[in-house]
Amino acid sequence: MADSTKDYRTEYHRAASAVTRSYAEANNPDAKMNGGRGFILTHTSPSAGNDQLPGMWTDDTDSTWAGFSGQDLVRAAALNTKTSAGFWCGDTGGYGIGTANPTDELYIRWLEYSSFTPCQEIFGSKSVGSRFPWRYSAQAQTIAKQYLALRYRLLPFRYSNAQIAYHETPVKYPVTFIGTSQILVGSGQSQFLVQPVTTQGATSVNVQLPAGSQWIHYWTGTAYPGGATATVAAPIDQEPVFVKAGSIIPMGPAIQWVDQLPADPLTVDVYPAGATSYSLYEDDGMSQGYLGGAYSTTKISADDTAGGVVVSIDPQVTAKYAYSGQLCARGYVLKINLQPAAPAAVTRDGQAVPASSAATFGTDSEGWYYDAAAKTVWVKFHLSSDVGTKVSF
Q1: What are phi and psi for residue 255, nearest 5 degrees?
Q2: Residue 389 gets which letter from DSSP?
Q3: One domain, residues 53 and 10
C-alpha cells in the first residue's frame, strides 16, 4: 500500500508538470518548436524522483518568529533529498495561520532569507492579506527592493547552479542547508553562505563558518577563517552573507523581471584564492530545446598562485544548435576583490588595457581602475561569445 501511494504521488506530480509544460508551449512562440517548460509548486509530500519534478513548499506557516525558524527553516532543511525537491520555497512572512500580519522586522528578516532560496514566494492567507512589500513600512519596502534587486542580478549564477540538477550526475542542488540555521547557495568552489536572522531585535549573530577556506563578508569585504565562529553585525538591512574564497559569481544587469534585459554586460565578481573556475550555463529559458543540446557554457577561471591574478574567459563548445536569445557578443565587467594595492598595469591577451577611473568607467568601452577603499580592481571589455581571453595583472 505504501509503495502504491508513493507511485500515485509521483504520477500526480508528473501530471502537474506535464500540464504546465503544455500551457507554456501553447502560449510562448519560442517554445512551440521545442516544447514548453512546466513548473508549479504542487506538493509537500515526498515521492520517488521528485528531484526531477515540480518543486515543493514548506506548507502553511505561522507569521511568527517561531513560525520562521521552527517551521519554515526546519521544513526547508528536510527537502534536499531525491524524494523531496531541489527547488523549494516557503511563504515569505508566513502564511498566517491564526495570526495577524508579521511585524515589519519579521517580514524584513524573512524576505532577506527567502531572497536566497531556490524559489521565492510572497504569499499569505486570505484572512490576513497579501505579503507584498508595499503593505509594510517604508523601511521594509526599501530593504525589499535591495534584496530583490540582488536576487535578480544573481540570476546568471542561480540559473547556472539550477541546471546541475538536470545536466550533471551526481545531482548537486542549487541550495543546501547546514543544519537548520544556515544555507549554502551554489556548490563546489563558488558558494554563498547565508545566515538567517531569526531572533527578534538581534543586531549581531554568531556564524559558524565551514572549514576548508576563508569566507568573505559580502557587505564589508572582511575575510574570516573557515572553521571559526565569527560574531558579526546584523543591522536590519544586512543579513549576514559570506562568499567562499575562490568564488566566481556571474551577475547580470539590474532588472525587475526575468528576461527584461539580456545578461549584457556580465559582471564577474571574483574572490581570488588559488586556482578556481566556474561554468556559466545559458539557454533560451523557455523551451525544452536544452534537452537536445540548445545551450552554451562558458568557463570562467581565476588564478593567483603565481603572485599576480589571471582571469580567463573560455567558451565551451557544447551547443549542438543555437537557441533563441543567444548572444553573439557581450560586455564583461570583472570585479576582482581582495587586492591590497593597485596593479602597475593590466593586460588582456598580452596587450595593455587602458587606464580608466571611477568617474569614466561606466561609459568607457574598455578600461580598468582600482578602488582603494574597497580593495577592488575593475576591468571592462567587449568579447565575441566564441572567443576566449585572458586578463592579467
Answers
A1: -135, 165
A2: E
A3: yes
CATH of the domain at 16: 3.20.20.80
Let me know if residue 221 belongs to a domain. Answer: yes
Residue 17: its H or E element: helix 2-27
328-362: pLDDT as tens digits: 999 999 999 999 999 999 999 999 999 999 999 99
Is 204 within the bounds of a domain? Answer: yes
Residues 331/313, Cβ–Cβ less than 8 Å: no
State the CATH number of the domain containing residue 196.
2.60.40.1180
Q: Is 90 left (phi over 0), alpha (psi -120 to 50) or beta?
A: beta
Q: Say whether both 18 and 139 belong to one domain.
A: yes
Q: Are residues 207 and 195 in contact, defined by beta-carbon separation less than 8 angstroms?
A: yes
268 with 385, same domain: the answer is: yes
Q: What gap in Å lies between CA 181 and CA 47, rounded to an integer?
A: 25
Q: List Cα–Cα distances, 124 to 33, 94, 118, 129, 333, in angstroms.
A: 37, 7, 19, 6, 39
Rounded to the nearest integer, the mean pLDDT of the chain is: 90
Domain encompassing residue 215: 175-244
Contact 265, 13 (CB under 8 A): no
Distances (CA, A) of 254 to 155, 211, 261: 10, 33, 8
Task: Assess whether 232 and 259 both reside in one domain.
Answer: no
Which cell numbers in the block locate residue 172? Answer: 548537486
252 and 240 belong to one structural domain: no
Residue 11: per-residue pLDDT: 79
Same domain, 238 and 253: no
Is 348 part of a structural domain of the chain?
Answer: yes
**Residue of 83, 76, 77 whose CA lies nearest to 51:** 83
Tell me which residue of 259, 282, 286 sits closest to 38, measured CA to CA. Answer: 286
Indicate whether this model's pTM tops 0.70. yes
Is the per-residue pLDDT at 9 higher than 80? no
Look at the chain and report how many structural domains it folds into: 3
Output the DSSP codes for 119-149.
S-B----TTT----GGGS-HHHHHHHHHHHH
Q: Would you say residue 324 lies in a domain?
A: yes
Q: What is the pLDDT of residues 154-180, one digit of tens each?
A: 999 999 999 887 778 777 889 999 999
Distance separating alpha carbons of residues 73 and 83, to the nearest angstrom: 18
Q: What nine digits make up the cell of 324?
A: 533563441
Crossing angle for the helix pair 138-153 and 104-114, nearest 10 degrees?
0
